[in-house]
Every structure is written in C-alpha cells, then in structure tokens.
Amino acid sequence: MLYVARRRVAEEPVSKLAIWSRRLALFAMAVVLLVIVIVNLGFLDPLPAISTLAGSLFFALVAMVLAFGAFVVIWRQGLRGLGLAVAALSIGIAMLAYPAYLGVLFYRLPAVNDITTDPVDPPRFEAIARLRPRGANPIAYPGAAALQLQRTAYPDIEPLLVSVPPLEAYDAALAVITKRKWRIVDVRPPQTGRREGRIEAVARTPLMGFRDDIVVRVRAAEDGARIDMRSASRYGVHDFGANASRLRSLSSDIDDLAGAEKAKPKPPPKPAPKKAAQPGKR
Fold it and tell me: What is the pTM (predicted TM-score) of this model?
C-alpha cells in the first residue's frame, strides 16, 4: 500500500500555470539582460530600449499573476510545480523592485532633467550641442519654471567657491572627471584676464548606459575661483534626481582635491651652492 501511495504522489501532474509563469519570467529576464547589453554597446537608442524594457516588465507582472494562480491551484488540487511558481514570483519581484523604486522617486521629486549651479547664467553646451542626436532634449536651459522647481527640490545645489587660482581649480575638476572615466568632449583651460575655463563631458548611467551631458565652467573670483556645473539628461522629462546627485558628488570631489592641492606643503628652497675659495683669499 505504501508503494502505491508513493507512485500516486509522483504521478501527480504539474500545474500548467506554474510552468507558464516560470517561462514568462525567464523570457522577461532574458529580454532585460539583452537590452542592457545592446544599449551599453551602443547598438540601440534609448527610446526603443525603454519601450522594450516596459514590455518585458509587463511580461514579468503577468508571470507573477500566473504564479499566484498556480499557488491556488496547487493548494486546492494537490498538483506539483510549487518550485516553478516560487521561481517565477522571485524573478518578477526582482525585476519590478527597481522600477517600483523609480516610481517612488517619480512622485517625490519634480519633473526636471537639467540641473545647474547657476540658473541665472547657466554654463552652455557648445561642443556637446553638435553631438546631441535628433529627438534628444533641447540643449538650452529650460528657464524660470525649471529654476523654481530646482530651488524647491535641490536648494543645496550651489556654485563651488575654492581659494585656489582658476587654473588649479580647473586642473582639479579635470582630474576628477578623468578619474570618473567620463568621455571628455572639449577642454579649454582658463587664461588670466582673457577667458574662463570649460570642460564638457558625457557620463553614462550605471545600469543602462544612457548618456547624460556635463559642463564645468571655471571663473576667477575675489579670493580664488568659482566653479559652476551643469548636468542634463539627453532623453526624458524626469531624471529621478540623478543630475542633482551627480553635481553634489562632483562638487564634493573637486572641493576635496582643490583643498588637498592647496594644503600640500611646498618643498623648501634649495640652498645656494657655496663658492670655492680662490687661492690667496680667506
């Protein structure tokens, strides 16, 4: 009798809902990974990539619904497939967690995509303006509406004042940008009394590799130099706080490096070589 009972348990069919839930979850995950690779290699534009990701997230959501249905069927009918349904549910939760976090940021933060430390006279994109593809956001700063939203949401985004000469401030900014491995598009060192320093660069988001544009402007100030920065997203009306976060960290790193350069002790002057005594003189 025990042998027959074991055979019956082993022969219970697998829930079709569990099977299809895992299939859809794996398909959605494969699409996301493929899109990430293709976008980072530069073979797919951001807008089609976002549409494809939205479709894959829909499949992940459907997989989760099927997994919940599989739980009910397995509980009521005693079918197999619990592990398949759990796997589908886990994949769906993992895929939807980050978009859910972005959704929270979407409602908490203002819909801005261009942040600068000087909204009155924002640094201009010049070299980058010629690189932006069609369909990208306008290159000009959005204006008074964006200014008010920025001041309300990010009141700490301000110009960086350093007590070092403009050229040293420029070198510090260039060193930080180089260390971050951003693509440097244009550099113009400051010249005394003639022109400001400028650095234009392109950063990429960590996961999808979407391109954001950055410009750093260095001008002489009363006690050193003033550094203004601007970070703008190429696509989308909402940056989810990414540009403000980038300017905060960039300003902090430049300030630390400029301060370190200032505090570095200068080597003592070398003593003048002693003249050899001439014959007949003491």
Answer: 0.77
